[in-house]
Every structure is written in C-alpha cells, then in structure tokens.
Amino acid sequence: MEKTSSLTRVAEFSSPKLEALKKLPRISDYELPSLRQRISEMDNNDAAEETSRGYDSAGHLNDYDDYEALPESSTLTTHLIAGAFAGMAEHCVMYPVDSVKTRMQCMKPSPNAIYKNVFNGLTTIIRNEGANGTMRGINAVALGAGPAHALYFACYEKMKKVLSTNPGRNPLANAVAGCLATVVHDAAMNPVEVIKQRMQMYNSPYKNVTDCFRRVLRTEGTSAFYRSYTTQLTMNIPFQTVHFVTYELGQEYLNSERRYNPKTHVVSGAAAGAIAAAITTPLDVCKTLLNTQEQGVTHGRRSINGMLHAFRTIYDLGGIRGYFKGIGARVVFQMPATALSWSVYEFFKYFLTNQWPNT
C-alpha cells in the first residue's frame, strides 16, 4: 500500500510540477556578489591549504614532499650515489648474459663459440671454460660503471628540471635529458666497453683487464678506446630516448602520483629496456665489431673504423640478418638489467632522501 502511494506521489509530481520547477530562476541568474566572493575566498583558502600540505594547483605533490623532486641542496649528491649503485647492479648482475651476447654478435665465430640461444651459450661456456669464462672483463665494468652511471643519472635528473617546469611529466624534456645524459655517460664508459668486449671474446688473448688495456694502448693507441664512440652515441641516443620516454610513460600510467613503488619501477624499467634494446640491435652489432676488431674479419688488415665501415662489413658477411645477431640475448640482458637499474636507483634515491634529506 505504501509502495503504491509513493509511486502515485512521484507520478503526480512528474509532469506539470516538474515543468514549473524548471522555469524557476537559477541561482546564477541573480546578482549575488557576496556569495560569489565568499566562494572565491574558500577556493583560495583550500588552494593555500593544499599547497601547505605539499600539493600544487594541479593536485601533484610539491618538490619537498615528493621524493622524485628533491631539494636543490641534496639533488646532485643523492643522484650521484643512487646512480653509481644502479650502474654497478645493472652491469654486474647480468654480466654472464652480456658475455653470451657479445659472442653471439661475432661475424665469424669459432665452431666452439656458436650458440643456439642464451641458455645454450651459458651452459656451453661454463662446460668448456668454467664459470669464470662468463665473467671475464667484469673488473673493468665494476670500476667504470659506477662513475659513468652516477654522472648519467645526475645529469638526467638535473636536465629534467632545467628543461621542464613539471619534471618527469614532459615526454620531450625526458627524451632530451636522456640524450644529454647519454653523451656524458658514453664518454666515461666507452673505454670500459672496449676492454670488456675484448675480454669476453672466445679465446681472448688477454690475460686480464690490465694486460688488455696496456696491449691495446701500445699497439693501437688511445684512439682505439674511442673508435666506437660515434657509433655508441648513435645507438645510445635513440636507445635512451626510447628508454626514458617508455619508462616515464609507464610511471605516468602505473604510478601517476610518483611515489616510491618498487613494482611499477620494475615493470616500467623492464618494458623500457626490452623495447629500446630490440630497436637498436643493428647499431649494437656495429659497436661490438668496432670494439673487438674481430680477428676473423680483419685478417691482419687495417682496422675497421667508423660506423659506415662496420655496417658495410656486417652486410657483406651476414646480410640483413647479420644486423640482428644476438637480438634475443640483448633483450634478455636489457629487460632485467634495466628493471634492476631503475629499482636500485629509485630505492637509493628514496632511501637517501628520507634518511639523510641534506645529503
């Protein structure tokens, strides 16, 4: 009975009375300056309160409450330390896979160094050369990766702030910052790459890292350590552009508040590393050839110099497929390595910011 009565009242109200209500003047049709002024004052007060709590007008955390944007007094040191740990973790943990990738990119590999895939490469090297066979040259990386990545991340974070008023949320600024950071990083890392890759080769003639450095310097000169620098930049600038843009887009989608969130750093980092690695594999093959000066290719002739020379040589020996040698190993290396690098970097940035805010 009550239900029927309610429906009757709704029906009675629905037609002529509703039309009458629609014709009533709206509150905005009146001049209510005092009310409008009061609302404006409330809005201003709310905005001021949000700002005092650490939020800007767009609802994002302010610099001092967001670990992504550190105080100016602590930015450089924090990013240097976090970047150094990230670089060592990235290169050292995944070093055995990197060794397999270098050998798989050889143009004329020894019959004993032909691998079907990453797992086959690892097991074959360990079986024939022992576990140390996968780690030759790691000393050079351990010494060089820390300083190079410290400069890399510090430059990246600094340039994000210089180029954009909203650091980390501008894809173009992220890309440019990544490119500039790469120029600095590669200048420090290129000699390390030369020594590392020569040590990784099958039947490498060098006893250790020091022996490799001395012999290359004596027989080929200082220029040998920067023979692949142009190619490295040509590879790493698009690599880092794709890498940083992908990572920041992943963070924007998965972690829009830019809080410390290990899961999102891992996922975004892995995706960024895999995509960038696959796209730039042809240039990585060229870099490997320039760094190693593979004996089976040069045959005692003049060294392979420059990216174009390397490109022609690879095409002559392997055709189009030659440019993608080791692509699987490269992606397998870069996915976890980049995820680990970003995870370690974000952790130390968060840790240092919260534990030692004046670092």
From TrEMBL:
PROSITE patterns assigned: SOLCAR
GO BP field: iron import into the mitochondrion
Domain of life: Eukaryota
Main location: mitochondrion
Cellular localisation: Mitochondrion inner membrane
Solcar repeats: 74-162, 169-253, 260-351
GO cellular component: mitochondrial inner membrane; mitochondrial membrane
UniProt key word Mitochondrion: yes
GO molecular function: ferrous iron transmembrane transporter activity
Segments of this protein annotated with the region Disordered: 40-59
Annotated Pfam families: Mito_carr
UniProt similarity note: Belongs to the mitochondrial carrier (TC 2.A.29) family.
Protein's name according to its UniProt entry: Mitoferrin-1
Record organism: Strongylocentrotus purpuratus (Purple sea urchin)
Lineage: Eukaryota, Metazoa, Echinodermata, Eleutherozoa, Echinozoa
